[in-house]
Design goal:
The complex is a heterodimer of chains A (489) and B (64). Chain A has 19 helices and no strands. Chain A is mainly alpha-helical. With 64 residues, chain B is mostly helical. Helix content of chain B is 48%, strand content 0%. Chain B has helices at 2-7, 11-35. Classes of the chains: A mainly alpha (489), B mainly alpha (64). The interface between A and B is large, with 56 and 44 residues.
Amino acid sequence: MDTVISSASAHETELERAVMNPLRHTTRWFWMAIGVLAALVVLLLVVLIRQWVLGLGVTGLGRPVYWGIYITNFVFFIGISHAGTLITAILRVTNAEWRRPITRVAEAITFFALILGAAQILLDLGRLDRVLNVVIFGRFQSPLLWDVTCITIYLLSSTLYLYLPMIPDLARLRDRMAPAAAQVGGATRSRLRNWRYHLYRIMSVGWHGSAEQHRRLERAISIMAVLIIPIAVSVHTVVSWIFGMMMQPMWHSTILGPYFVVGAIFSGIAMLFLFMTLIRKAWGLERWIGAKQYDYLGLLLLVMSVFWAYFTLSEYLTTGYGTLVHERHVLQAKLSGEYAPWFYAMLFLNFVVPFAVLIRRKGRTPAGTVIASAAIAVGMWIERFTIIAPTLTRPSLGYEKAVYTPSFTEIAITFGSLALFAMLFLLFFKLFPAISIWEVEEGEHIAAVKRKAEELMAQPGPAIVATSVAGGPAGVPAGVPAQPLRNME
Amino acid sequence: MAHWILDTAGIGGIIVALVAIPVLIAYIRMVRWIAAAPRDAAHSGATRTDAVATTTDAPEGERA
């Protein structure tokens, strides 16, 4: 690495050391992982160029199956984008303290998943020179335009929601790097070379950490947390409406909106577990991402699995009782036709495996949650596929029954997209702290004050605790800093 | 009127822009509002990048 973040100083806390060390040192394993992922990304680029040159004929798409794996990937990526923003926003709003070490990872998943999700639409269009037609000739009666609107707002909001809590940490990195740049022989020139210092300096927008600046930051984060919940819900509801507004068998359903939202949160939490565990292990953050996060989030995953099963049952039971001709054909394809293996695999991976693993507390460990989450990640991709392919192979517009077999191009682009997602995620956390240092410190401080207050409350003697907990400098118990606490309420 | 808005080619794109651009401007202003916050009188000229003050804080002169 050409860039040096100043080595651990005496004032550096254990948390800072743990979080910043991966930014300073790169292991062989990291580069090996990046190498493997980069190879898959190169494959993605090669098949992508080939598709652009030769057209969508190199895919298995065609009439009437005009959506296939690309739209499956789109719904899947938009779904997992709910990992961060929605989940962490809910946890912030409800003031769940255990969220602090995992918010950054979750928000990064959202950011990259949204970008990859939107890219799948471009792949499905086939001809990129026609992308602007969506805007130039777009009519607002089309749910596709609603989707463009919602995803644009969601991407802007998620970017800000990822960025805001990073500002104090970026300033900390800026300050750690500045002395090192000066030491490496010759102030200005070395600083010019030090692109990471400049990156942190620009991105930290002159953060100086005054009480007023902290107050403004926390206010902005609170506003965004509240705003982002309806935006996130709207995104996946509108994604479902792209299907639901069409008179296609098993798509034209009022339950599709909430069904998609539940599925999105479900797959989002699963993806959060996978990447959280990867970062925890690779970056050595076991002390901060620990049993509490796995237990509580595992419980949430279990609840979402049950919700998902409930919505699936509602959807299929209603369709089965309706026995509308076109819907019956699609249902039969899923229950006993060529899509049956996919359908039962989906049920097994999305409900049986997570329920069996997560129902007991002993299962809500890193190993248990990773097994359940890997099953869910695959299961939810299959769920998206079984929503799209069976319906389009049996459309209601008088087409003959069709067969859809994804081509090598589509499969390669799918794996390449997943690799690109993982690669961007790893590179992002090579540049930026994987844990929000200031938020975790704040949480530790709040916990320390509460502990001290409880100890003093338990002791007989003059009551000096109340004002200190509220943040006033008077009456601060011994051993607890006198700095007024922000965000204590 | 409502039908015209919904059915005219190009209006969709304009609506997307009318929603997205003010949101983008609002978010940029939010960041600038945070950046423009005044410094603490007691710490003028110094940077505090930690969440809360701690008893092991470095002396001001050692911070960049």
